[in-house]
Amino acid sequence: MKHQLRLVGSLLHKDFRLFGLFAALNAALIIVLQFPGLLGQLQGLAPVLQVARLLATVLLILVIFQEDATASLEHDWLTRPVAGLALLLAKCAFVVLAMLAPAVLGAIAYNLYLGRSAAEAVLTGVASAAGGTALTFGLVVMALAAITANVRQTVIVFLAGLLALTVLVLISAWLHIGGLEIISTGSQWVILRTSEIMLGVVAVAVLWVQYSVRHTNAARVIVGLTMAAVCAFLPSMTFPRVFSVQRFFSRDPAAAASIGLELAKGCFPAHVLDANRGPAVVAFALTSGAAKGAIMFSTRSIPQGVPAGDRLTAGLVQLSYRAAGEVVQARPAPPQFAPLQIPGSGGLLAGSQDWLLPRGTYERLARSPAVETEIDYFLSLLAPEASAEFLADGRRAFHPGLGYCGATFSPADAVVMVDCFKWGIQPAQFVASLADSPASAGRPSGYPDFAPPALDFWGGKRRVMRLPAEGSGIPRVKVTAFAAVAHFDRRMVVPGVLGGPISVCPAP
Amino acid sequence: MIVETENLTKKFWRHDAVLGANLSVPQGSICALVGANGAGKTTLMRVLVDVLGPDEGSARVLGIDSRHLTPRDRLRIGYLTESQKLPDRLSVARYFDYLRALYPTWDRSLERQLRERFQLPPKRPLGKLSHGMRVKTMLIGVLAFRPELLILDEPLSGLDPLVRDEVMAGLLLQADETTILISSHELSEIEGCTTHVAFMVRGKVTLQESMESLAARCRDVRVTLVHEPVVSGLPESWLNPQADGLQLRFVDTAFVDSTRLREQVQRRLGAIHHLEPAPLSLRDISKALMRATRQEV
What we know:
Chain A is α+β, with helices and mostly antiparallel strands. Chain A is built from 13 helices and 16 strands.
């Protein structure tokens, strides 16, 4: 054991002698990039430095691992008394000391500079610089370095991977499960987090195979099979399937049994799309094949039976028509991409969605007497699990269930910025409101994330909420953490195309 | 046997690099592994040090299956190949610092002695050394920990005669306490110290025996006959027969003594005017065997 540790030390020493200068420059870059204030002064240089940091980190990992390549037949270490796992340990130690440690220390220093407590600074530093995504990225680059003998080979493998990924994204987009669409639904974890964990596991397996038994072909087969599996699996994950996985993780499915949804009575408000509807909508309509003259209409849903204090979110709403055995899907207009959020208050508030229908499609559907509109809602019920009230005086404190929170009031901008950082298990969503004005609408912390607690074993998340606030006194804010209780769907079917039979609800 | 392979086979796609090779290297010997380019010498040596795994058969080194060599076993084996990738940006002195930490048995005085003999510039990065200096550095890297077995793949390739002599002299410093398996095309350089020889042809070890025995049974035979010879139906042990009028020249690989050879020639080819069997160098034996193999193809 002592000899092995001495060996690891010797390998590490050699690598620092070889790449110490490169590592020092990279570490300096990493630390500088942890200070956004400093970057702000650099203006246009910041993105260049970010890219440079990424490239330098990848290159440093590659050269460190390939200095004693396992996928080679000629490297000196192969016939030296060096155990593969000791070599791996030395390489990982280099990555930790030369890349991870500067990033974590830089982030801690920045958080201390912002006046955060030591505990929060450490946790934030670890979460931002050594969180799950950063570690997975590092592991993947290490695995790539382990199955190739030099940078040229790595570039070839990387380009092949990139090509496969591009094809994958194109197929996914074709199947309407593109990243943008899924990221706003809260169900993104089904694909993104599981992919991240799977990549991490595969990378560890590749490293183990290469450094334990040094079987390059087996390691390359693992990588190839993983790519093939991902290419085969991801395009098949349409949103309803993603949602089915998520539904399986519902904490209390029965809680959704009493929740209903109703459509607002009457025909759907509709108008003919024209340039006045805003360039974004028109551009979207044109690219989606709905040329000028298409019908833009809204549907409005009213929830029923949402328990007081709970929130209902719609991850995705799909509208399709069924006519003479044919199913036609309507394209949601851009606002639809924002998640629909309905605070549970007896169904008084409703959410609406906008849709686009090409004129030609409408006319074809209208000719079918039995045409029906089906609207599928993929919903999640959120219940509060922790909350705290505090003054927006800039002071930060730890609140159980919320983590480290603080708020600052800017009278000039009439806004309160609420900022919470939580390590470990994450609530699905944070909502902030002004405690002293019950009528003020709560502001959620961006898109929800319904990842099960088991996936939050490492890392933390910062959430920022912006509340409009007037007056000169320091307001009190209330922050509530919501957890997902149940995931369920509801389908509504109405006759006709625009909320009723064609004779009653014709196109404008 | 310190090295022993049994039906060792290693394939690269459809190409058989080593095909059922049986090699035995006695302890304490200096064994030359000889063969044409592409005969499978490098692949066989890589299997011996577990850089490559065998597809079939087995290789035992120091009595251990080569696939199960541990770092502890590697403390007893030195391996050098001309294509070895070294940490090029490390200086000579730093490289030895690094190696010293890997080997508890590292002999600093031997290292110093060899460095002085080879006159290596301590501060020069390995990547900026000449080929000769690089080989000398690698040689110190495998000699200074006093391995029981040295496996050297073409260590003399591309070296000028002076450096070759220096490398060989360095190698011989330790020859009495180490078994050496060496592949080289510079046969005249290694002949003086070689105790055993093994020939590889198209992935197989076709011949292996002591240098003494091989040298004793191989002769370059020049015969002047009374009648013009018919060069067909000659014994298989007479390699590469070349007739020129009444003159016949061949390599006898089963030579016992001149009298018996004279009787054999007379029986096959008739009356002899003159017969002269001359000893052959390892280089000439090797050439004769390779030429004979090519003719078989």
